[in-house]
Amino acid sequence: MKNRKGILDKIRPIFEEDGKLSFFKPIFQALDNFLFLSPETTKNPPFGRDPLDVKRFMSLVIIGLFPCFLASLYFFGWRTLLILLVSYIAGGSVEVLFALIRKEEINEGFLVTGFIYPLILPPGLPLWMVAVGIIFGVFIGKEIFGGTGRNIFNPALIGRLFLALGYPAAMTATWVKPGWLPWGKLLSPFTIGTPDAVTSATPLVLAKVGELSSIFNLFVGRVTGSLGETSAIAILLGGIFLVLVGVASFRTVLAILLSFTVFNGLLRLAAPSLVNPVLFSLLSGGILFGAFFMATDPVSSPVTKSGKWIYGIIIGLIAILIRSFSGFVEGVMFAILFGNIFAPIIDEVVIRFKIRRYAREE
């Protein structure tokens, strides 16, 4: 390890400001920081935080996503790996390009974006569409705002929204029938092209015509749907892990799931023919995945504790309203993006309210 670090130290000067390869300094820094500690340290207090903080944060998110990823491999086959690879190559290229142009460090944030994005896509989506969506999501959803930490929208959701609006036929006709016991689709041939579309629809589409999938199938993931959103047990395993390690805010998750459940129950009583049963609604579609992995994005969600509750309540309400009373069978994506828009305003209102309250108390 020390020898490899020594090699990087020897070639470091050619990537510095006056070096021959200074234009590629962000790439060199990204490689160095990914493999080793940051070379910048302090000799005297006060000391900065561990330079691996961001790396640990991103690593924990990916660990939390792994149950969903493994479930997608089992149910939909090895093409999942190819979709993931395309996501990283296409989206990562945009990230690297802007880092070189701005002469900034390559941020590790894309490691999570590139991992989440494939999990919210249909398994049979053409690979070129996978690439187009992530390129659009990173460019429009993040880079035009200034890069990681400045975006107001979740880039992965922006990419999927672009595909849903630009290629609706492909997004609704590329579902793949999931494999089942004993090996799922792990023994199926590796498919590079678009696999055969499944003849049946997703659980939410079937529910529109009165056919409800079994709770067991929804819980384990034996249903059609996006790669990482079908298995409720996999989502709960990874999501609860992120909450326990403090990466995902329990306030946001609870607010979304509680508001979604309460409003679903009330609307079910008022219009049983239009609104699905509560447990079915919770286990189907992307509400669980969105609550744990998408809405809790620390950049595009509120930072105040009260704001997280308000933000979550809004998302849960909007999601069930779109599901039940619109032409879309799923509303989680739109609900989270809607919440992203109001996140800064929510924080502003909460902070102003607390300042006024403290001023009155004094």
**Order of helices and strands, N to C?**
HHHHHHHHHHHHHHHH
Radius of gyration (CA) equals 22 Å
**Computed structural class:** mainly alpha
* Cα end-to-end separation: 58 Å
> Strand fraction band?
under 5%
| Poorly predicted regions | none
**Main sheet record:** none
Q: In total, how many beta strands?
A: 0
Question: Average pLDDT, to the nearest integer?
Answer: 85
Secondary structure: helix percent: 55-70%
How would you describe the shape?
globular
How many helices in DSSP terms?
Answer: 16
**Integer count of domains:** 2
Q: Could you explain the architecture of this structure?
A:
- With 362 residues, the protein is an all-alpha fold.
- The protein folds into 2 domains: 177 residues, no CATH class; 115 residues, no CATH class.
- Helix content is 62%, strand content 0%.
- Helix 7 packs antiparallel against helix 16 and helix 12 runs parallel beside helix 15.
- The longest helix has 30 residues.
